[in-house]
Design a protein that fits this description.
- The protein contains four helices and three strands, in the order E-H-H-E-E-H-H.
- The protein is mainly alpha-helical and about 100 residues long.
- It has a three-stranded antiparallel sheet with strand order 1-3-2.
Length: about 100
């Protein structure tokens, strides 16, 4: 796991890094746009990837997009990544079988 994927940042640090209020960050979570992990004590923990995602969300909001549109866009992107990963896996499997 890369350092960018590790969920270690508290919401206060994320707020400072992004310039977003705690309220906005929680709202984006409520809307399902990002999913922080929770510590045993219930504290939200974010990754650097989450920080980048929040900046993208904020930019889309600033451009006039609605949260449901952003969520739909995120879902399409995730589906494309899944298809791409499956294609790469298939190509690797085909190449591996050919070498036997």
């Amino acid at each position: 796991m890369s350092y960018k994927e590790k969920k270690v940042l508290p919401i206060g640090a994320v707020s400072e890094l992004t310039g977003l209020s705690l309220r906005k960050i929680r709202y984006y979570e409520e809307r399902g746009l990002l999913l922080p992990e929770r510590s045993n004590g219930g504290t939200r923990k974010y990754s650097f990837n989450d920080v980048e995602k929040l900046m993208d969300i904020a930019n889309h909001i600033e451009d006039g997009m609605q949260t449901f549109e952003i969520k739909k866009m995120q879902k399409k992107k995730k589906q494309k990544e899944k298809v791409r990963d499956e294609m790469i896996r298939g190509q690797l499997n085909a190449a591996f079988r050919m070498s036997k």
